[in-house]
What we know:
Chain B: Belongs to the binding-protein-dependent transport system permease family. Chain A is mostly helical. Chain A contains 14 helices and no strands.
Amino acid sequence: xxxxxxxxxxxxxxxxxxxxxxxxxxxxxxxxxxxxxxxxxxxxxxxxxxxxxxxxxxxxxxxxxxxxxxxxxxxxxxxxxxxxxxxxxxxxxxxxxxxxxxxxxxxxxxxxxxxxxxxxxxxxxxxxxxxxxxxxxxxxxxxxxxxxxxxxxxxxxxxxxxxxxxxxxxxxxxxxxxxxxxxxxxxxxxxxxxxxxxxxxxxxxxxxxxxxxxxxxxxxxxxxxxxxxxxxxxxxxxxxxxxxxxxxxxxxxxxxxxxxxxxxxxxxxxxxxxxxx
Amino acid sequence: xxxxxxxxxxxxxxxxxxxxxxxxxxxxxxxxxxxxxxxxxxxxxxxxxxxxxxxxxxxxxxxxxxxxxxxxxxxxxxxxxxxxxxxxxxxxxxxxxxxxxxxxxxxxxxxxxxxxxxxxxxxxxxxxxxxxxxxxxxxxxxxxxxxxxxxxxxxxxxxxxxxxxxxxxxxxxxxxxxxxxxxxxxxxxxxxxxxxxxxxxxxxxxxxxxxxxxxxxxxxxxxxxxxxxxxxxxxxxxxxxxxxxxxxxxxxxxxxxxxxxxxxxxxxxxxxxxxxxxxxxxxxxxxxxxxxxxxx
Lengths: 277, 296
C-alpha cells in the first residue's frame, strides 16, 4: 500500500473522509433533532423558524412522562421482557450446543425444521399465535407477550456454528472426569462461548427493549404496555406536543445508544465471527 | 448400560426448550393458519366454534376481488422496487467508504451509520413524524429557505410512500453495511496487488475484482432485504396507518388490519398465505438467477 501514499492518494483520502463526515451528519440529523427538541418547552418546539439549541432548556418533558404518564410502568414491563429474553438466550445456546455437539436420532431433521421456521413470515403466524394464546387464556398477560418471541431460529443457528468450533476432546475429557452434562455446559461451554453469548446477549437486549408487535397485539391494559407501545400511544394522544414526543423517543433511544457505544466492537465482530460474510 | 441410555437423553434435554417453543409458536401456527384461511373465522366463530364454516377458496377469491388488497400489493411492490436497490447501493457505498481507512475516525463513523438500525422503530417513526410535519417540521423549514413550497410529506399518496421509503432506507443501511464491510475486509490484499500489476485502474479493479468477490455478501443482503421489505409493516403502521387513501397500505399492514381491527381471522390468514407464497416465489427466483451465474 506504500506506493498509494502519494499526493494523489492523500487528496483522495481527504475527499473520502469529508464525504464520510457529511454523510454521517446527515444520518444523525434525526438523532440530534430528537435530543435538542426533547429539552425545549412545548411552544418552542413549534416555533418557526426553529431554534437549533433550546433557548430555555427544561426537563419538564421528561418529568411529564413519569408523573402524568405511565412511563414508569412501561419501563418496568419492558425490563421484565428484557430479563426473560436472557432466558430465551440460554435456551438458544443450549439448543445450539445440542445440535452441534451430540449425535442423536433425528438431529438433521429437527435442525432443518428449526431452520424452516426462519422462512415463515411473522404475518402468517401472527393470527394463529394470537388464537392459541387466546385459547390458553394468555391474552392480556405478560407470559402471552413474552412467550412468542422467546427463542429465535437464527440465534440457534449462530450458536450451533460457534459451538461446532469447540474441540470435542475437551468435552470428552470433562466427561471422563465424571462431570455431568449440564455441569459441562454451564461450567465449561458457556465460558468458552462467551463471545457469541455476548453478541447474542446484546442483540437479545436490543430486540426485547424494542419489542412492539406482540405487546401491541396481546396487551389490552395499559398496565401491560411496553415503552414502544406507550410511545405510539403518546404520539396518538399528544399529536402536536412534539417536545414531549421527542422526550419519550429519547428515553427509548438513548439507553440503546449508550449500550451500543460500549459494546459495538463485539457486535461488529460478532457478524464476522458468525460467518455471515 | 443404564448410564449409556441416560446419556442418550441429554441432547434432547438440551434442545427441548427451544424446539418446543418453536413448534408451539411457529410450526403449529402455520398449520392452523393454513386451515383457517379456508374458513370464515371471525369474532363470532371465536366465541363459539359452531359458527365457523368451511368456505373453500372463497377467501382467496375475495382477496383478489378486493381493491384494497390489490392496492396493498401494488404499494408493497412500489416499496420493494425502489427501496431494496437503494438500501443495497447505499450500504455498499458506505461500506466502501468506511473500508478506506482504519483509524479511530472511521470506526467512529461506522457506529454512526449503524446507529439507525438498532433504534426502536416507534421512536424512529415519532422522530420522523416531527421532521416530516408539514407546518412545524425541520425538512419543510430547510426547504423554505431554498424557497421550495411546503411538501405534504405524508399527506399525498405517492409522496407518502417515498417518505416512508427514505425513512426505511435510513434505518436499513446499518446491518447490511456491516455485512458488506466484513466481506470487504475478507478480500485478500493479493488480489488488488495483482490487479495493479496488470495495470487495472480503480474503476476496473472495482468492477472486476471487488464486486465479483462480494457476490456472496450481495446475494445474502439482497435475499434478506427483499424478504424484509416484502413484509413492510411498522413504518406505515405508525406513521400513516396505511393512509392517505390506502396510499401507504402494505400487504402486511392489510393483514394486520383485517385480523386485529376487523377480526376477520380467516380472511387475514388467507392474505398472509398469499404474502408467504409471493415471498417464496421471489426467493426461489433469486436462487435460480444465482445458479445461472455461478459459472463465472
